[in-house]
Design goal:
By secondary structure, the chain is α+β, with helices and mostly antiparallel strands. It is built from 10 helices and 31 strands. The strands form 8 sheets. Strands 8-11-15-14-13-12 form a 6-stranded antiparallel beta sheet, with no helix packed on it. Strands 22, 23, 24, 25, 26 and 27 form a 6-stranded antiparallel beta sheet that branches. Strands 1, 28, 29, 30 and 31 form a 5-stranded antiparallel beta sheet that branches.
């Protein structure tokens, strides 16, 4: 017997007017020509063009002049080649030059999908039967570049979600590269990516201090290249050192932005082709402190790198790469430690689901253990998780995704033992959800996918994306779901 699923008639759709002002990179030779053309305008023409830019774009961006100034600074090397003094330019000329190296980017234009949901750190001004929640989405724009965006909402006692007003003045974070690296951890991850030649590895060990920040690392690399004649392989290694270092960073947003205006856009080289499928979880430590973590996959066009995002307030974020056996997509952290260890769901080989344990959040060296593999026809291709497990009095509830014939995705569920989550004590014999006729057509047909759920008012709140295009949510009675999971495991 199947479980009753209530699809809600509330949809999370992209908004085309949500645009970021990004750098427009045209290359040094074209940049020289553009700068010369701009400076060749008369003073009156410069004023007219800049006035048009401000009239047409100032209302679409927060602090547009700061954006233009920032992008002007990126072409300062071109000014030097042209023999133009930066100090000799008027403020109007700097802004005008900056505008030619700025472009609007619609972050949600292509798709708005793979949602997760967590309780907001701010539960003020809600009724006793309500909860304020934060939803995250994978937003895709031009060039299929993915970023993480947020929405705030209130879920009421009837399980209806009321979305807060969505801001359109999008804010990229301040990029902070002051992460302090530990040599032993950094070299361990480097060895996983690139097995260095013995001699260069010795030189690196001698050069690196026990801890260092990004700027010190850049200096180390410059010194190594200046002091040694490096092989082609070692030159590549130097590039990978900087590539790996750029994957650690901290970011923060202005407090006067709403959560929907904060966009986690690809920053490091490891992310230049996108940030995929953040699985957010509200993690409670042994001492009761709360941190929101998200595992996600960074993609640079060639390699994927699993990362861990952490925040307490959704204003300040820390990003670190994850080391060890958890190397594929779809890792999902348990919301608390189990028997003194962190626990993580993961997938290896793109087919089976595994579980891993670790003493730290970023180093997962212990062998992963098989949890489930394809069993039923609707999951013969693969079975993975749809986000972090949810703790219930019957066990850890894991919402899963599976792929069957015609690459049709479905959403199901597992139940794991609370004290020993390596034990599967329940598994649905039928999926919770297949794509219906209204959901099956889109960018990627027949796909349903979720990255995180919550329990509210004794119901599973299940946001999900359909056809890799838009998102909605469904609700399931928790008691019915748990009893069916246990019943299916006995028959």
């Amino acid at each position: 017997m199947g479980v009753t699923v209530n699809r809600k008639n509330i949809f999370f759709k992209p908004q085309m007017d949500r645009v970021l002002a990004r750098r427009f990179n045209l290359g040094p030779e074209r940049a020289k020509k553009i700068v010369a053309r701009v400076l060749g305008l008369s003073d009156e023409e410069k004023s007219v063009v800049l006035a048009q830019i401000l009239r047409n774009y100032a209302r679409r961006h927060r602090s547009l002049l700061n954006v233009l100034e920032r992008n002007f600074k990126l072409v300062v090397p071109v000014l030097k080649e042209l023999g133009i003094s930066r100090e000799g330019l008027s403020n109007e000329e700097r802004m005008l030059i900056g505008s030619y190296f700025t472009m609007e980017y619609s972050i949600e234009a292509a798709a708005y999908f793979n949602p997760s949901i967590v309780l907001s750190p701010d539960q003020s001004q809600v009724q006793e039967t309500e909860r304020r929640v934060l939803l995250s989405f994978r937003a895709v724009g031009e060039g299929h570049l993915s970023s993480i965006v947020f929405r705030s909402a209130v879920i009421d006692k009837n399980l209806d979600i009321r979305m807060d007003e969505v801001g359109v003045l999008l804010e990229k974070p301040k990029h902070i590269k002051n992460y302090r690296y530990k040599k032993v951890d950094f070299l361990e991850k480097l060895e996983q990516l690139h097995k260095p030649e013995k001699e260069i590895y010795r030189l690196i060990e001698e050069k690196f201090t026990e801890t260092f920040i990004y700027d010190e690392l850049v200096l180390f690399v410059k010194q190594l290249k200046a002091e040694n004649e490096l092989s082609q392989d070692s030159e590549l290694l130097m590039q990978q050192i900087l590539w790996l270092a750029s994957s650690h960073y901290e970011i923060s947003y202005s407090l006067d932005t709403s959560i929907s205006e904060r966009v986690i856009f690809p920053i490091s080289d490891t992310e230049k082709n996108g940030i995929e499928d953040a699985r957010f979880v509200r993690f409670v430590s042994d001492k009761g402190s709360v941190t929101n973590y998200a595992t996600y996959t960074a993609y640079d066009g060639h390699s994927i790198l699993p990362k861990l995002l952490s925040t307490k307030d959704f204003v300040n974020f820390k990003v670190q790469p994850i080391n060890g056996r958890i190397v594929g997509k779809g890792s999902a952290l348990f919301p608390r430690k189990i028997n003194g260890k962190y626990a993580m769901l993961c997938r290896e080989g793109g087919e089976n689901s595994y579980i891993a344990f670790s003493d730290t959040l970023t180093n997962w060296q212990q062998e992963i253990e098989l949890l489930v593999e394809p069993e039923y026809p609707w999951e013969f291709i693969q079975v993975g998780n749809c986000g972090s497990p949810l703790e219930t009095d019957k066990g850890w509830l894991v919402i899963t995704h599976s792929v069957g014939p015609m690459r049709e995705y479905s959403i199901g569920a597992l139940l794991l033992d609370l004290d020993d989550p390596k034990k599967v004590i329940g598994k649905l014999k039928q999926p919770l959800l297949f794509a219906n006729e209204a959901e099956r057509n889109g960018y990627v047909p027949n796909v349903l996918y979720s990255c995180g759920q919550i329990i509210h008012n004794n119901h599973l709140i299940l946001p999900y994306a359909y056809s890799d295009q838009e998102s909605t949510y469904a609700t399931v009675c928790l008691d019915e779901l748990l009893s069916t999971l246990l019943e299916d495991s006995r028959t």
